[in-house]
Specification:
- The structure is a single chain.
- 22% of the residues lie in helices and 42% in strands.
- The protein contains two helices and eight strands.
- Strands 1-2-3-4-5-6-7-8 form an eight-stranded antiparallel barrel.
- The N and C termini lie far apart (66 Å).
């Protein structure tokens, strides 16, 4: 009689036991689901470097590199009429993540600058025309990077999946005329693998 715990008897005890079994099996199910998700996620991250499929001229130099950032660009390629041809001046674009949030801007240099203030300046390594109606896909090597954020430490940049952006097919009227030609592209930023 010196027990401090309640004595469970009859129907109440049966209901409590069933409830506890249900909770236990639910928790075990959740635990197994969490473990399975963790295993799948770690496997996916271990094998997925998010690199796009590209011609070898744009991917062979990237051995030992891994994608660390990606943005979808919408903007213009700016050209100036020299009197005999359209000369490329600079890009001007905004990069968005896959949810449509602005994550960076792209401008002369060529330079990319993240919303957090980090930047990378690139120099062309290779280019491939994949679509005759669009600017080439490019591989650029980083020549400078810095600032706080995702672009610091970038080693290479790929421009892929381009739409538009080619210089006008018709000549300019006056020397110095400027053409701003709409384009889209995906930019992939790489770092050395650890």
């Amino acid at each position: 009689m010196g027990r401090s715990e309640p004595v469970l008897t009859g129907e109440f005890r049966q209901n409590e036991l069933q409830h506890m079994k249900a909770l236990t099996s639910l928790n075990i199910g959740k635990t197994f689901a969490a473990i399975a998700l963790a295993v799948m996620t770690s496997t996916t991250f271990a094998t997925d470097n998010r690199a796009p499929e590209t011609p070898s001229a744009l991917s062979d130099p990237l051995v030992g590199q891994k994608v660390h950032f990606h943005g979808n660009a919408v903007g213009v390629q700016i050209y100036r009429w020299t009197g005999t041809a359209w000369a490329f001046v600079a890009p001007e674009a905004v990069l968005f993540d896959n949810d449509g949030n602005v994550v960076a801007i792209h401008y002369a240099g060529p330079t990319w600058e993240s919303s957090s203030g980090s930047f990378v300046v690139g120099a062309r390594v290779a280019g491939v025309t994949v679509d005759a109606t669009a600017i080439p896909w490019l591989l650029l090597a980083a020549v400078n990077s810095g600032g706080p954020g995702v672009l610091d430490g970038t080693t290479f940049i790929q421009r892929v999946n381009t739409v538009g952006g080619l210089a006008p097919a018709t000549p300019g009227v006056n020397v110095g005329d400027v053409a701003r030609v709409y384009y889209e592209a995906g930019y992939f930023f790489y770092r050395k693998e650890n």
